[in-house]
Design goal:
Elements: H1 4-9, H2 13-20, H3 22-45, H4 51-61, H5 66-94, H6 98-118, H7 121-142, H8 148-172, H9 178-201, H10 207-231, H11 236-271, H12 275-291, E1 293-294, E2 297-298, H13 305-329, H14 336-362, H15 383-407, H16 412-427, H17 432-457, H18 464-482, H19 488-502, H20 512-535, H21 542-553, H22 555-561, H23 567-585, H24 590-621, H25 628-649, H26 653-676, H27 681-702, H28 709-712
Antiparallel strand pairs: 1-2
């Protein structure tokens, strides 16, 4: 029984939970306010013309984690410099021709928006700022071209000051590091994968669980790459391990894909009644899970993985000889191709798992040789979707610019430059229409709060301390809203445009009509952006989801035709990145998400086999293989790869049966070569491996759980025989 003193010494569970949730949010709120006031104070002391620009920059770049702030600040600074150079060039060329100047600005913003949609994480933010800075600096400066350079330099100084203050406060005051998130994700994922492998090999897991686990793994892969890309900005220790974390991500993708392929193949063998093959291989499966343990318990920390890697190495070294002995003991009447295919997948899975465990173990030390060979995550974005985003931004800026010129609205320039920022920022959001609309709501709230501050409170205060006390609750309100689930757009719109409208300058202008005009311009420009997202090829329409699904299928085409150098990583990361985008678009639609996940499984299984097959072919091309039979089998293999790529490019019953026929023909050619030609032992093993890859592709095509399975039930059109040729 606990004593009262021991009870008092333990933190209350509710208090501990608050400290890890809302407590962290309030720390972020106070840090953002502190950084904003620091930037405002320094800007005023330096007598910069618009200190509110520095304060606005703080709320643009401030994030809960230090690495995120530094990464966002870095890309903002780079984007600002690029936008500055471009806009000075446009002003020098078109400052006396408003139509040409605004058209060139709209074109530049469209290009930058397309770049933002094409890229990922904070790199996209650099493109956003390249376009937004050009509009922010250029539109006001073009109206006074003689002072354009000085105006541009002061804007860059104000933005740079906001960036420096954000980075300093984030790194020095109660810092939260993205590196901690990376380490926690790596550890949690390794443990979860080991548990998944153990349960699946033991047959204690349902398909629905497999789908949910693999969907979580996809989110982990994309999230880990995002966290790693910002953690490198934090400290040297994280940078020294960054390459290994990237490599770990790639090896995890390969191991998880290989294991899923092996698990699916064993299920197909059970369904098809291949009991001899299943019984012969299951003892090996039961041996894998105990290898992933240390001191009788599951591996969790990187240091504990050293022993597991050594056990896997020993198991892997002995596996080929043991497999050959098992194969010799099989009944000659059984289908050895089934056994060879499963055994090859088992060996490749163990090899990938060993590499994954070795890299995980290497994270226990600051430097390691596995840091030298880095495999980078390569995101995949549809070029057409990015082009649509750029075209939409171009049209919006052009329409608002035309309205400004025709109406001579004093705040028309504000509407144009605000639209340039919002259209680019929202384009990278999964729900751009909702994001722009929320920002409009936040800006309207900021306009009301700003009127109270500027016209009711400012005339009665004197001194920076009193100014800070007046602004503090209004700024904290905006940051607090941005931390609430589903309210990010409202909070961002409020924080940024409250500073834009009501942020103090060294010389404050009390002009109610200008204030109201600017507020109306901001809200109207955001509503126009929201309407553009909803009307001009809307991103939540089925067309984009279908486009991304086709891009996902075309990863098999990439696996069939692209250069083999670095192809496995490009293929793996591209497929998962596309699935994460489809999931975001299909949020709340479990049927659509499940369909996309099934396509990813089919793409990964077949694509991996295609890459393995092409790798074996490339070894053959550089070897001593010159026989006429070998050349004939190589031709049929390449034809099978071509037909499989055509099938995934555009699935139809005719293409399905053509791919199936071509694959069967290639298998028959290889088996005939094995039966009639006495090749060296290593060459025979290579041919067996190629047969295994082709047979796996064939079984994957015929899998009734695959999205391609329904095509097998349909007869192709009767326009000629669906021959492989």
């Amino acid at each position: 029984m606990s004593t009262p003193s021991s009870t008092l010494n333990r933190p209350h569970p509710l208090l501990a939970d608050w400290a890890l949730t809302d407590g962290l949010a309030w720390i972020h709120i106070f840090k953002a306010a502190l950084a904003a006031f620091l930037a405002l104070w320094i800007a005023m002391r330096l007598d910069l013309p618009q200190p509110r620009t520095a304060m606005t920059t703080v709320f643009v770049v401030m994030q809960p984690q230090s690495g995120m702030v530094l990464a966002k600040s870095f890309y903002r600074f780079c984007g600002t410099l690029v936008g500055l150079v471009v806009m000075l060039a446009l002003i020098s060329l078109f400052s006396q021709q408003p139509v040409l100047f605004l058209s060139a600005t709209a074109l530049w913003v469209g290009i930058c928006t397309a770049g933002a949609a094409r890229n990922r994480n904070f790199r996209s933010y650099g493109f956003v700022l390249s376009g937004y800075t050009a509009a922010l600096i250029g539109i006001p400066a073009a109206q006074h071209a003689d002072a354009a350079f000085l105006t541009a330099m002061t804007r860059v100084a104000e933005v740079s000051l906001g960036i420096l203050c954000s980075g300093a406060i984030s790194a020095l005051v109660f810092p939260r590091h993205a590196g901690e998130q990376v380490r926690a994700t790596v550890r949690k994922r390794f443990t979860a994968f080991v548990e998944y492998v153990s349960k699946a090999l033991g047959g204690g897991i349902e398909r629905s669980q497999i789908e949910s686990i693999n969907a979580a793994f996809v989110a982990d892969v994309v999230g880990l790459e995002a966290a790693r890309s910002v953690a490198v900005f934090e400290d040297p220790d994280t940078r020294m391990r960054s390459g290994r974390v990237a490599r770990l991500n790639g090896e995890f993708m390969s191991a998880s894909t290989r294991f899923h392929a092996l698990h699916q193949l064993m299920n197909r063998l059970r369904v098809n009644g291949a009991a001899a093959t299943v019984d012969a291989l299951e003892p090996y499966f039961r041996e894998v899970a105990p290898l992933l343990s240390a001191a009788g318990g599951p591996v969790e920390k990187a240091a504990d993985a050293v022993h597991a890697a050594a056990q896997l190495d020993t198991f892997k070294a002995a596996l080929p000889k043991r497999i050959r002995a098992t194969r010799c003991a099989l009944d000659p009447a059984s289908d050895l191709l089934e056994f060879d295919t499963a055994a090859e997948l088992l060996y490749r899975f163990v090899d990938d798992l060993h590499a994954y465990t070795l890299t995980y173990a290497s994270l226990a030390v600051p430097t390691h040789e596995r840091e030298d060979r880095i495999t980078r995550y390569v995101p995949k974005t549809s070029l057409l979707a990015a082009g649509v985003s750029g075209l939409r931004a171009f049209v919006v800026i052009l329409v608002l610019s035309g309205f400004w010129i025709m109406s001579a609205w004093p705040s028309g320039g504000t509407a144009v430059l605000d639209a340039a920022a919002v259209i680019a920022l929202a384009s990278s959001s999964p729900r751009p229409t909702q994001m722009a609309f929320q920002m409009a709501g936040g800006t309207a709230l900021a306009a009301v709060a700003g009127m109270i501050v500027v016209f009711a409170l400012y005339p009665h205060i004197d001194g920076f301390l009193l100014l800070s006390a007046v602004l503090l609750p209004f700024l904290m309100l905006g940051v607090f809203i941005s931390t609430r689930p589903g309210m990010m757009g409202v909070g961002v719109g409020y924080c940024i445009f409250f500073c834009f409208l009501a942020g103090p300058d060294n010389v404050i202008q009390y002009d109610p009509s200008a204030f109201i005009n600017d507020a109306i311009a901001l809200v109207v420009s955001m509503l126009v952006c929201s309407m553009a997202f909803a009307v001009l090829l809307p991103t939540d329409a089925p067309w984009l989801r279908r486009l991304l699904t086709r891009e996902l299928r075309r990863q098999v085409v990439t696996a069939s035709k692209s250069s083999l150098t670095g192809l496995a990583m490009r293929f793996e990361s591209g497929a998962r990145d596309l699935l994460s985008q489809i999931d975001a678009l299909a949020a709340g639609r479990e049927d659509l998400q499940r369909e996309a996940l099934r396509w990813m499984f089919a793409v990964l299984e077949v694509g991996h086999a295609v890459i393995d097959l092409r790798t074996e072919l490339s070894r053959s091309d550089t070897g001593t293989d010159t026989g006429t039979t070998a050349r004939a089998s190589r031709a049929s293999i390449k034809q099978a790869l071509h037909q499989v790529a055509r099938l995934f490019d555009h699935p139809t019953p005719r293409r399905f049966h053509a791919a199936l026929s071509a694959t069967t023909l290639a298998i028959d050619d290889l088996r005939a070569q094995l039966d009639t030609v006495h090749e060296p032992r290593e060459e025979r093993r290579r041919l067996q491996r190629m047969s295994s890859h082709l047979h796996f592709i064939r079984t994957a095509l015929l899998d009734p759980q695959s999205p391609l399975g329904q095509l097998s039930q349909q007869e192709p059109p009767q326009k000629g025989a669906p021959h492989a040729a």
